[in-house]
């Protein structure tokens, strides 16, 4: 996939969908992210859709609208009309790019308006966009790893492997839900610092983690690693991901084999997947401290230093039950950026497969919590509250160290560059219900 | 599911399939394990089958053979004829039991022989029997955990959580293969004890782990834990599992989030799944040392102490390339027993779901390496070679500390009790190819 800019990136493009031309939309014509949706309250199949302003282009209703487009675009649209996006993801970057170009032309201001292709986002319900065969969670923010490491291992915050190995572990596919997910506070074993024996009960240190999700496009055969220089061709796109975490369960269970029940009760993703092609104008340099080691050859590639990262701002907002009751909007608790990631997306795929492990279309990778260098950029309450010691005071006077029942966490993400429209990821929201 | 014995367990039963009545078969009429198979070399669909002697009852060819059986048995056979066993697994213990009874009656010596239902096992090829949504690997042998802990943490071999928490982590679904799997020696980062920096190359400490696989039958909704007393009703059956492990990769990567590339390049399972009903006469007492803590209430249940375990012998055999060339049979390197497991199968399911995590039909759990208390019962080369320090000498004079290219590991399992036929799990074999 060429990361060169093309006509779909032209900042001057406007759409006949008026809501796509406003300054505050996440979904101008230059974005065109994918989702899986259906009209809410109807007994109809989920199918693929593409955001434009406050509307969705229904790939299941495309009919003859792309008859003038390239055959590859028509074929990709047909795959996008299926009940999951796996087949479209598997089709590869030429197919994704052909469909993007065709949709861009279809929706431009000088094209004939085709309202019959549109479903208002307000009338849609969304689903997890792919059958996720395997979900892997990484740990790519050195700022997060250092801050959390200090809490778990004060004498040894950043382990010796961190700056050599993109640390990751396998997560749970069965409990990944789309924005709007609600889940009961998990129960489990914990042992306090002064306890001899563990006890069982509801989690007392429930947290979120602000992450970027990476949907794998075309996979690789077992035994055939993905080379780092080609790895981005295997990425369908990025979404937002909330890796809900039960810190007290994690502290007691995680040695020696890593997090398990502390993570696998729920993971929430945004409905929208922004393609790498849409993000091409919003790439970031990949930088290291002078003392940091150079990546091993299988993790190094020509484009890494100039444009290995993504300049995507990541915002976390909290709305408590009391705020909701009083009509108060969610309040920002942090703002970070994906460009702080110590490892690039391409490095994650290359590392994941270098031992012969196979990825499949629809697999999901989590970036790990995207904390930045400043304290206000921390991607979890564990960091914002200094391990639960310093409560956050919210605008209505409420305080939080960890999440309480009824709290909703909303994450938003967007990319912007001078002279270009801002493109957004929409939102991922999830709500904590009381323990059963 | 009642674990009481019924007519299908009668030790006197004989079959019209003569090979099922021999003393050395794994598959007498009292066993009836499931597989997914097709005739080798033919362009036909995989479907379910049931072993009897050296034959397979083809569930795709059952026709009117069960017309006299209960409707539940006919319905279950129809699900078993599909291209994966997920639907049959999801049907629940009444369905599995009805089908077992019907097949037992169909195959008895006094029934009319129906050769047209049979496919010789020698003419079949097998597949992973279900679409495995999530794969979880546990760590249930306290003997393995202690022995390995000594190598990684000499001063602290068994961590404080071990005897309270059934330790587990999520593994990789995409690289699970059926017996016969071959894979290239994985490559990756390692750092020796005297090295300042890591290096990249083929794994030098490649190992196997002898485990029992547990296929989940009916799952649970997210947020609705499976109670430990009912957990066995959610287990379709057991198989053999080889958790291939790259010890040098593991030592460098595993902190703080657990094993990743050291495990996810390959996992091999036996084609046969032995149901819990078949294993009912071969249960084992579940015992603890007097000083061990009692399980927390969510992990305790009435049947635990008398019959929580399974008396299944587990054998590991090694055949090197030289042995294969010289016509030498695989040689036994260890013999253990699943009854040594510190945690019961029911406890694994209850723990896995107590936080609200959902299991789905077809999910696979690994028991963890089943090492017994004696050194000859060690389920990995890491233990047998004392961390690579004491080579094993094979009958032909070759030595091994870890696996070499061309080595085949074969695992076998069986259960026996006085006055009852021995029932077996068949074999799971896998071969290490040279690194790419």
UniProtKB/TrEMBL annotation, chains A, B:
Pfam families: FAA_hydrolase, FAA_hydrolase_N. Ca(2+) binds at residues 137, 209, 211, 243. Keywords: Calcium, Hydrolase, Magnesium, Metal-binding, Phenylalanine catabolism, Tyrosine catabolism. Substrate binds at residues 139, 153, 250, 254, 369. It comes from the Bacteria. It is an enzyme of class 3 (hydrolase). GO terms for biological process: homogentisate catabolic process; L-phenylalanine catabolic process; L-tyrosine catabolic process. PANTHER family: FUMARYLACETOACETASE (PTHR43069). The active site is at residue 144. Transmembrane segments: none annotated. This is fumarylacetoacetase. Residues 30-129 form the Fumarylacetoacetase N-terminal domain. Its EC number is 3.7.1.2. Mg(2+) binds at residues 243, 263, 267. InterPro entries: Fumarylacetoacetase, Fumarylacetoacetase-like_C, Fumarylacetoacetase_C_sf, Fumarylacetoacetase_N, Fumarylacetoacetase_N_sf. The lineage of its organism: Bacteria, Pseudomonadati, Pseudomonadota, Betaproteobacteria, Burkholderiales. GO terms for molecular function: fumarylacetoacetase activity; metal ion binding.
């Amino acid at each position: 996939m060429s990361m060169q800019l093309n006509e779909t990136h032209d900042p001057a493009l406007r759409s006949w969908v008026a809501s796509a031309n406003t300054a505050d939309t996440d979904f101008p014509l230059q974005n065109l992210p994918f989702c899986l949706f259906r009209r809410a309250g109807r007994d109809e199949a989920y199918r693929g859709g593409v955001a434009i302003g406050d509307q969705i282009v229904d790939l299941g209703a495309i009919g003859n609208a792309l008859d003038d487009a390239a055959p590859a675009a028509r074929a990709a649209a047909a795959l996008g009309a299926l009940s999951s996006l796996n087949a479209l993801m598997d089709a590869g970057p030429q197919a994704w790019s052909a469909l993007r170009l065709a949709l861009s032309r279809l929706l431009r201001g000088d094209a004939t308006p085709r309202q019959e292709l549109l479903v208002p986002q307000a009338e849609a319900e969304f689903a997890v966009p792919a059958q996720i065969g395997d979900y892997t969670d990484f740990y790519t923010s050195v700022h997060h790893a250092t801050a959390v490491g200090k809490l778990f291992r004060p004498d040894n915050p950043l382990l010796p492997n961190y700056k050599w190995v993109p640390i990751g572990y396998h997560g749970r596919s069965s409990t990944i839900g789309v924005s709007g997910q609600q889940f009961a506070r998990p129960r489990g074993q914990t042992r306090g610092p002064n306890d001899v024996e563990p006890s069982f009960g509801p989690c007392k240190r429930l947290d979120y983690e602000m992450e970027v999700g990476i949907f794998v496009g075309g996979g690789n055969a077992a035994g055939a690693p993905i080379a780092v220089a080609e790895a981005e061709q295997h990425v369908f796109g990025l979404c937002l991901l909330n890796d809900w975490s039960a810190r007290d369960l994690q502290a007691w269970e995680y040695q020696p084999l890593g997090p398990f029940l502390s993570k696998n009760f729920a993971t929430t993703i945004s409905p929208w997947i922004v393609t790498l092609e849409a993000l091409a104008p919003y790439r970031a340099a990949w930088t290291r401290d002078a003392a940091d080691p150079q990546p091993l050859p299988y993790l190094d590639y020509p484009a890494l230093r100039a444009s290995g990262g993504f300049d995507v701002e990541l915002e976390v907002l909290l709305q408590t039950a009391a705020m909701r009751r009083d009509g108060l909007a969610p309040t920002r608790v942090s703002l970070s950026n994906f460009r702080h990631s110590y490892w690039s997306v391409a490095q994650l795929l290359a590392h994941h497969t270098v031992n012969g492990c196979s990825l499949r279309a629809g697999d999901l990778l989590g970036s790990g919590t995207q904390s930045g260098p400043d304290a206000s950029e921390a991607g979890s309450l564990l960091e914002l509250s200094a391990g639960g010691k310093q409560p956050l005071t919210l605008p209505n006077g409420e305080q939080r160290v960890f999440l309480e029942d009824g709290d909703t966490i909303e994450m938003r993400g967007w990319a912007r560059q001078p002279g270009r429209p801002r493109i957004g990821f929409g939102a991922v929201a999830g709500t904590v219900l009381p323990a059963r």
